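batch_manifest entry 22 of 60
target: ATPase AAA-type core domain-containing protein
source organism: Herpetosiphon geysericola
requested by: lab member K.T.
priority: normal
notes from requester: please return tokens only, no post-processing; we will run our own comparison against the previous entry in this batch. if the run fails, retry once and flag.
--- input ---
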Amino acid sequence: MIHSITFRRWKSFLDTTLYLDQMMVLIGMNASGKSNVLDALSLLKALADGEELQEALGNLRGGAEWCVLQGYGSFELEVEIHQNEMDNIQEKYIYTIRINVKNNIYIEYESLELYEEKDKGLFLYRTETNNDDSNIFRLDILSENNSYDKIGITTSGESILSQVFKINDNKLVNSTIKYIIQIFRNIFVFDPIPNRMRSFSKISSLLIKDGSNISGIIASFDEEFRKGLQKQISDYITRLPEHDVGKVWVEKVGKFNSDAMIYCEETWPNGQTFTIDTRGMSDGTLRFLAILTALLTRPEGSNLIIEEVDNGLHPSRAKLLLEMLREIAVKRNIDVLVTTHNPALLDAMTPDYIGFITVAHRNPQGYSELTLLDELDALPKLLASGGVGYLATTGKLDQAIEAEQEQGE
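--- output ---
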């Protein structure tokens, strides 16, 4: 799983690190850098998928021009990945890529390093020298006899990571590349939009970023798995609304059973029972359904990133949402990163959540930085005056971070 990502000259970041865990909450004011973190994760997935750099960067907010910190010509992402077994780190990998976007988009440097022993790394591959030709790279790549083959590779604008299989037969290198690529491909930035869920959807095994095909995703599984999935969704969602929801299920429709719709059985206080579909569900219920679907259907080992996770959800259900995220993430071995502006959600975080909160903020020079909440020396005193939501809303959290930065200078 991804342990950390270091951003160097990436968008509004000069040099800062994001740490990931089973569940992480990213908070911060508008324009603090939260969206820039999500864009970097999306880029890693695109690189693993073999997208050309021009296309991958162009699909991000602001395009290639705004991917690099103003005043610089290149950015660098460094990803530390831990292969765990029973909570013990078995192996550690560091993937690094530096991309120039000043005049032409090309990879300046890329490498993958394996750490089998503490502080002792072995490069599986790396660029031999920086090269301003967007098509040709000179690589050092580990061979079967543990020496390095020096070869040339035509990139066609793609990451080297996505191409090593074509040029190498070292089993260690190839098995590691497969593992890293799978980790990156399982990154999924999810931004469910309720209005796009209010219709029938095609049956599919690939969840769309906006959640518009959640009906088709649930319907795509075999009957036994689908029944279990529907029961899990029903168990969680019955605790959400004011009315009594008895169950949630999916039915296939159409002549060829190629589409699907989610239905919900709802009982009102007067005893009347109604069956409704997504067209009659509230925005909050649909977002909750979409998040549940993603949590319960994404492959194990995934990184699931949810923007504004509690958008449209009543503040009284914040605690339920946190419990659900954490419980399912642990059960299914999925790392979850969520962003939020909601003080009710932050105030619902008990002390055992504090270590999983990262604050995005601007430093005195204007660069974005990421600070783990529990690293603040003033945190005990701050929490004595109120919850995290209160501290964020009143500005006390940012003031404390700024004060500690000034003391450290």
